[in-house]
């Protein structure tokens, strides 16, 4: 169903062109000092993160095809959006992911095998946020986590854990979701609450163009970034395949949040190069031309070109490839060693405090299963 | 329990001692205030709960005593209220939420059932969710659509939630505090037709634990079970029955998840007959669960099938028809007669 087109535009913050030139758009110029302040080691880390992420993606997809995972959720193409924003957060910040931000978790210290455990069907969670850089659990009901993040940010305010003026202590919340999730009621309610209470929070939307098979045009007739202003907060559109833009814009928005200036909304325009999950078949709904367009805008290729221009050595790139291969091999080995949890996990922690129905059912199952043990002998 | 003092306890009173006569609305108010004084992590959030004190005035005066950091007038969005409360609970707070009316809880149903109820499980026990959701519920107030419903079964059906409903001011005062002290999420259903009748509240003695059911009237011929506002109807039915020479034993469920079946089964083992009454729809209801469980546990004691008295399996009708729709003492007695006829 075609509708008459209307003219909505949002300028895009881009520092690094698809060709790998540092040539900020007018909207990006203000962010240049943040990028210029980055030491080479930080830039190299961005590259390493992105390459490792892509390699982990391949490993995850292969494990799924080999029947070792129920599902794999790829990030191929979205590495710059994820790495730049994650590297912009401070250790005291809290991160609420959707379910595609594997490299964000790794940057916060999460062992990616924990993610494989979830996708293998061995746990409903997989890690403790407080032991993994405040990287909270994946949330599979779209946009639910936006409200949890906002409530958490309100809690930071109640605790006086933000906006004290101490950048080493003040905390903020970074929440990830996608273009499809922006249509959910919860995503919109979260923006209302965040704006109303001026929470220390950054909403980071990865617009990867597709919600499984439905294009972003079905979610919004205007750039998603414009939604920020409608809710009373800055809405900034960035080239999500530019790791420098992702880093700088998120960094500034988080600093404003920590300083008590309220929330921001970032739309990172990127592309899901692979399928939505391994259960998807993107050849049914998108064209080769579109994929070719985005392949030419690959986030890793352009960043590598730029680093090479700055004098990064061939040995550096080779070393990163080796590291990524090692990480992937290690994950694969350990994923195959994952075992099913004990059946008591069905009942454990459904309630924090004793519950007679659950206790009775746990005891019954134990007795029932044990009744077969003699049969096998 | 004797009434030593007759006074309206003001929420500012603090240090409440002795027995006071309070309405349920005032008793919950006093219980909330007590919980907030005892634990700085307790906070209230909901629509119109601040300056107005809630549409039923249950939170009246609490904004003045505790300030707007602990009594939050939220945006008008139920899913937002529950979803942000989950984040606050992750941060160590104990949010007590007010859903303005029973029929308005459904925008929050997803956050309650897919998130709140499972968050601790998902975290392998590392993320308790001490969130209380207060829901004024039930009919008898002559109001418009979505304002008189009894949605408790949806939540009793959901693992991870606890569901309770007081029937008296005394229980309301204590049960709200016990619900707030629970580390699991609690749906706290407040029978709004019982908000205003007054009763004694013993501020020194809680009585039963949160999830215990209780025999509120002894009898020998038929056991009748209900919760919330239905308990008053059952007691009325028992009075009428007594005049006709029939003795009803009345059990107040108090908790709908878990259900404390002990007193019910004990009672049925003596009377041999059970009638379960509820304002909710009867199909796939709390009453159905009680009927099934009593049939399993007290089969040889039963002299008659367990009978259910419910509202009809239709949406709550226009209020002009509510007296025909809601179970009355007469409808309970009709079922009692049928039970005794076996």
TrEMBL record, chain A:
Q: Which spans of this chain does the record mark as coiled coil?
A: none
Domain annotation Dehydrogenase E1 component: ranges: 48-324
* Cofactor(s) needed by this chain: thiamine diphosphate
| InterPro entries, sorted | Alpha-ketoacid_DH_E1_comp (IPR050771), DH_E1 (IPR001017), THDP-binding (IPR029061)
Gene Ontology BP, a term: branched-chain amino acid catabolic process
Report which superkingdom the organism of origin falls in: Bacteria
Protein's UniProt name:
2-oxoisovalerate dehydrogenase subunit alpha
Which organism encodes this protein?
Agromyces bracchium
Automatic annotation (TrEMBL), chain B:
Any single GO molecular-function term of the entry would be: oxidoreductase activity
What are the entry keywords?
Oxidoreductase, Thiamine pyrophosphate
Pfam families tied to this protein = Transket_pyr (PF02779), Transketolase_C (PF02780)
Q: Which residues form the Transketolase-like pyrimidine-binding domain?
A: 22-197
Cofactor(s) needed? thiamine diphosphate
Q: Which InterPro entries match?
A: THDP-binding, Transketo_C/PFOR_II, Transketolase-like_Pyr-bd, Transketolase_C
Q: PANTHER family given for it?
A: PYRUVATE DEHYDROGENASE E1 COMPONENT BETA SUBUNIT, PYRUVATE DEHYDROGENASE E1 COMPONENT SUBUNIT BETA
**Listed name of the protein:** Alpha-ketoacid dehydrogenase subunit beta
Per the UniProt record, the source organism is Agromyces bracchium
